[in-house]
Amino acid sequence: MITQVKRSKHCNELRSGFTTGACAAAASRAATHYLLTDECIRQVTITLPNGDKACFELFRLVHTSEGVLASVIKDGGDDPDCTHGIEIQCMASWYAEPGIHIDGGEGVATVTLPGLELPVGEAAINPVPRQNIYDMAMAEWLACPPEQHREPGLALEIRVPEGKECAKQTISERLGLVGGISILGTRGTVKPYSTSAFSASVRQSVQVASANRLDHVVLTTGSRSERSAMEMLPQLNAMAFIQAGDFVGVGLRAAKRYQIGKVTVVAMIGKLGKMVSGHMMTHVSGHAISFSQLADIAAQHGADEVLCGDLANANTGRHVLDLVQASNNRSNPSAVTFSFSASRYLQALCCHAAKYATDYVADKVMIEFRLIDFDGSLLAQYPADSRCKQQSGSCNRLISPLTNRKNHNKDCRNEKHAAINPARPPN
């Protein structure tokens, strides 16, 4: 859901914004007010779910043949969300049955799969914003003299004209949310760069997969790795593929919690380089790649001093990959002594990351790691045979904070694991 980042006018602070749920509540209150009183207003004030007051400028407030249509433009502040700037509408009309009846219209998704907070077949208006919409409309209903009530009830239809198009930038359809976006927000406000929102979406994706009886999910670190994963694993349901980004750790813990049998992590060298050190949360501002550790592993797999020195002083994960592949091309296949193998080395990195991930889930989930190149081609994986359990062989003796790293790497080297040829395909 990340689009171009919008900056605050103030260099040292980022603006908070409003959720789709808060905008829907504002539009609903304005539409209800105009329907009941025939008073045209330009602004509307609501109470957010967190108890704060918020004032919204109205973008649209008109009588139509259906009732009253009101809308606001969603201001997401400096949160990089695709819903920033879209119009959130409410159509308010009289209803023959008592009560306030809330539904979704154009651009609001319909729930088609189990595993979410809402039943299948219902509009994707989450419980907290639905209650907020109800409360704001009810406040207007109660403030209006009963003799002005033309019918015993009200119908409120939430609409998002750009919702269907906006949903293409989200994972909504994979979660069974079809036809638009969800109306969300437990507080009413959004904080800029909310990592909690992203991690919650990863956790929810695993929960939905589990609720739909999937036993194998694939955590990817971005759109390129996801495309590659889908090509490698075409037999899996699309729901199994989850863009975890920097929150692979969240996905792993969720897989343990919701009793997923197997997790495949597909990543490129930058993210994998961090997970080799046991860092399952890989944000750029968090843990850096330990290039000295990557050099140490290379040394234990036959790399010479020159390569080890270059790896220890590498600048990026991509630099590491270039150095390793270039060195492999220079190796002497006729040498009697053990020569460095890029394929074995890259698989060892997958092996180390898999062990840490297994520890991360207390050995409750089968873990597979796949390393891909920047063109999406497969470089290495562990286990080499994805059908076997990763706990077999020398990876029982993988490095941990209590294990001697050099002894472990010697074991891995002597194990003679099979691996994928890391050579890039011809242009």
Automatic annotation (TrEMBL):
<dbReference type="Pfam" id="PF01888">
    <property type="entry name" value="CbiD"/>
</dbReference>
<dbReference type="GO" id="GO:0043780">
    <property type="term" value="F:cobalt-precorrin-5B C1-methyltransferase activity"/>
</dbReference>
<keyword id="KW-0808">Transferase</keyword>
<keyword id="KW-0489">Methyltransferase</keyword>
<dbReference type="InterPro" id="IPR002748">
    <property type="entry name" value="CbiD"/>
</dbReference>
<keyword id="KW-0949">S-adenosyl-L-methionine</keyword>
<keyword id="KW-0169">Cobalamin biosynthesis</keyword>
<protein>
    <recommendedName>
        <fullName>Cobalt-precorrin-5B C(1)-methyltransferase</fullName>
        <ecNumber>2.1.1.195</ecNumber>
    </recommendedName>
</protein>
<comment type="similarity">
    <text>Belongs to the CbiD family.</text>
</comment>
<dbReference type="GO" id="GO:0032259">
    <property type="term" value="P:methylation"/>
</dbReference>
<dbReference type="GO" id="GO:0019251">
    <property type="term" value="P:anaerobic cobalamin biosynthetic process"/>
</dbReference>
<dbReference type="InterPro" id="IPR036074">
    <property type="entry name" value="CbiD_sf"/>
</dbReference>
<comment type="pathway">
    <text>Cofactor biosynthesis; adenosylcobalamin biosynthesis; cob(II)yrinate a,c-diamide from sirohydrochlorin (anaerobic route): step 6/10.</text>
</comment>
